[in-house]
Backbone:
């Protein structure tokens, strides 16, 4: 037994030991997340698309692509969420944290330069790896390591989304395709998320106000809103399936190209897309409020969604690093505005919230987490309709997956992990 483990058990006793470790991991995850976000914002002041002309920023994107290729060559693969999910199932968490040497600088450059994906995946890989590393230092069991890895992930999501409950459930659901199955990690993840939120809010003085500001909507839902929610679930499933297949196609296109050259060509493609629409660049968080309330022609909103779809697909397929959760939310907002322009009798906020959740659920299979995050971040009371859209999208995309290592836990429903580990 290591000295560190003897100290912890001697101080709090074995029954309360895991609770204390959850608090430590949650607080540490928040500190790591705060540092990551601060570094991202610092780089954004230098590289963000709005600071430069289109031509100059095209050069920056190509240069960042070259830097990504070099960093990956000399520091190793940055890993990805698929590998993290697989390690959680098999080992309880990542075997080591060497991937972070490459992941952190590469992802910061990609996001700050305006790549079409956001910080959610790199951030949760970092905080999840922190939970696993801490577990290994204490020589914990695989089950306890899994709990602390998930707790770290929940803290990372909370730093980004500011929604502790939704973030905790999201961290649990993203491991599977059919809902939350590591139920024993639910309360630790919630505690870790709350601790992480408290630490992050203290450091940044972040308030409890919603992050996104949608137009006013009626206090009560109408029966017709459930119909619109179901339609949004179908539409979101179609968007998610299209995104999955387009990403797979673009990966096949980039595959014959030498790995060091792929990010360079990706930067060139992103710069070219920016000449078409500014919405092809960045992960969309700062653009959501503008699209949610601006007045524009119908085609403007459809074009914004299509541009984000294209930019995120290129980013994902060309070796740039980031996450696609917030881009999916952006597409939901833009498509909600597009749908409302065509069907003005529909509640605009219902459409936006339902499509945000449905788009993301179709890719990540996180029906409860996505619903809670959308409603918490937007400060809206539309849980029934948003949840309905999310569940429909989950059902319609159960056989379409971008995170191929999502699987059922061993012995769940009488199946083996390999039974559902397919794309």
Residues:
């Amino acid at each position: 037994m290591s000295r560190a483990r003897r100290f912890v058990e001697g101080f709090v006793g074995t029954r309360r030991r895991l609770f204390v470790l959850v608090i430590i991991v949650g607080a540490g995850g928040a500190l790591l997340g705060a540092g990551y976000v601060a570094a991202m914002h610092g780089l954004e002041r230098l590289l963000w698309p709005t600071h430069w002309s289109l031509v100059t920023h095209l050069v920056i994107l190509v240069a960042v692509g070259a830097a990504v290729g070099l960093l990956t060559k000399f520091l190793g693969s940055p890993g990805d969420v698929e590998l993290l999910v697989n390690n959680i199932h098999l080992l309880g968490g990542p075997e080591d944290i060497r991937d972070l040497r490459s992941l952190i600088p590469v992802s910061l450059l990609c996001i700050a330069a305006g790549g079409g994906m956001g910080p959610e995946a790199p951030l949760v890989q970092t905080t999840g790896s922190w939970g696993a590393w801490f577990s290994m230092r204490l020589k914990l069991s695989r089950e306890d390591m899994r709990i602390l890895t998930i707790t770290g992930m929940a803290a990372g999501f909370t730093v980004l989304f500011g929604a502790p409950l939704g973030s905790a459930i999201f961290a649990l659901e993203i491991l599977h395709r059919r809902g939350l199955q590591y139920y024993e990690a639910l309360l630790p993840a919630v505690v870790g998320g709350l601790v992480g939120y408290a630490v992050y809010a203290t450091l940044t003085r972040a308030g409890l106000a919603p992050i996104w500001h949608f137009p006013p909507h009626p206090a009560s839902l109408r029966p017709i809103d459930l119909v619109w929610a179901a339609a949004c679930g179908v539409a979101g499933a179609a968007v998610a399936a299209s995104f999955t297949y387009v990403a797979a196609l673009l990966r096949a296109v980039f595959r014959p190209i030498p790995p060091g050259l792929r990010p360079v060509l990706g930067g060139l493609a992103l710069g070219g897309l920016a000449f078409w629409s500014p919405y092809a660049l960045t992960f969309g968080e700062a653009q959501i409020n503008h699209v949610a309330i601006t007045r524009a022609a119908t085609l403007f909103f459809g074009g914004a969604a299509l541009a984000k779809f294209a930019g995120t697909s290129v980013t994902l397929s060309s070796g740039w690093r980031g996450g696609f959760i917030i881009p999916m939310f952006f597409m939901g907002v833009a498509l909600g505005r597009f749908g409302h322009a065509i069907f003005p009798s529909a509640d605009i906020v219902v459409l936006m919230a339902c499509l945000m959740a449905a788009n993301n659920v179709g890719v990540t299979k996180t029906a409860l987490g996505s619903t809670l995050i959308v409603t918490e971040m937007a400060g809206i009371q539309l849980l029934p309709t948003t949840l309905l859209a999310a569940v429909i999208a989950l059902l319609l995309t159960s056989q379409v997956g971008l995170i191929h290592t999502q699987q059922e836990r061993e012995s769940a429903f009488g199946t083996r992990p390999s039974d559902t580990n397919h794309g």
In short: Residues 14-47 form the longest helix (34 residues). The chain has two domains: 3-204, 223-396. The domain at 3-204 is CATH 1.10.3080.10 (Clc chloride channel).
